[in-house]
Amino acid sequence: MLILAYLNLPNLITLTGMLCGLSSMILSLHAYPGFALLALVCAGICDLLDGHVARSMSAHGKRSDAQSQFGQTLDSLVDVINFGMAPMVFIYALQPSPSVSFYLCAGFYVACAVLRLAYFTVHGLLEDSRGKYYSGLPVTYAALLLPVTMLPGLLSWPLSWLLWLLHVWPLLIGSLFISRLRFRKPGSARTVSAGA
């Protein structure tokens, strides 16, 4: 089967999200942090849309098993770019002179993101008596958490505080990726619970 035969609507949305993630990194490196964050949010929206469209097509028998597996693999690879690499490029670009400690924090974050995605590829959504949940923070949440935490720092925090945040953020979010915390899908009564 030709590769182009897999380019259905969900996968095109996924690739659009990848372009948003790439745009975020380029904008970061050219000192446009606000636009970079906006591009990252757009990548997160594409990640939500491609899953919704894919499930709808599968429910109506419009995607084969091979197309479904291809889409899931493509989505995970794009997530590495958008929610693993792009946030670290953003944080890198904010620092006047990145230190060795930052590179260690960034490496930890990206490794945790990749591990989280690999775990989800194998296990998917887990389930208990209260319904389905994610084990560890889904990497897509970086598209929301980065703007929410960084914008106040960029607008009002002293430089010393901001540099502290740029080191703590990768460590904290990376740790949540690989934690045993249970994150319920949106709409659940409680979003987070402790792992068993």
From TrEMBL:
One of its GO terms (biological process) is phospholipid biosynthetic process. It is found in: Membrane. It is a multi-pass membrane protein. Pfam families: CDP-OH_P_transf (PF01066). Keywords: Lipid biosynthesis, Lipid metabolism, Membrane, Phospholipid biosynthesis, Phospholipid metabolism, Transferase, Transmembrane, Transmembrane helix. InterPro entries: CDP-alcohol_PTase-I (IPR050324), CDP-OH_P_trans (IPR000462), CDP-OH_PTrfase_TM_dom (IPR043130). GO terms for molecular function: phosphotransferase activity, for other substituted phosphate groups. The chain crosses the membrane at residues 12-29, 100-122, 134-155, 161-181. The keyword Heme does not apply. One of its GO terms (cellular component) is membrane. Belongs to the CDP-alcohol phosphatidyltransferase class-I family. This is CDP-diacylglycerol--serine O-phosphatidyltransferase. The lineage of its organism: Bacteria, Pseudomonadati, Pseudomonadota, Betaproteobacteria, Burkholderiales.
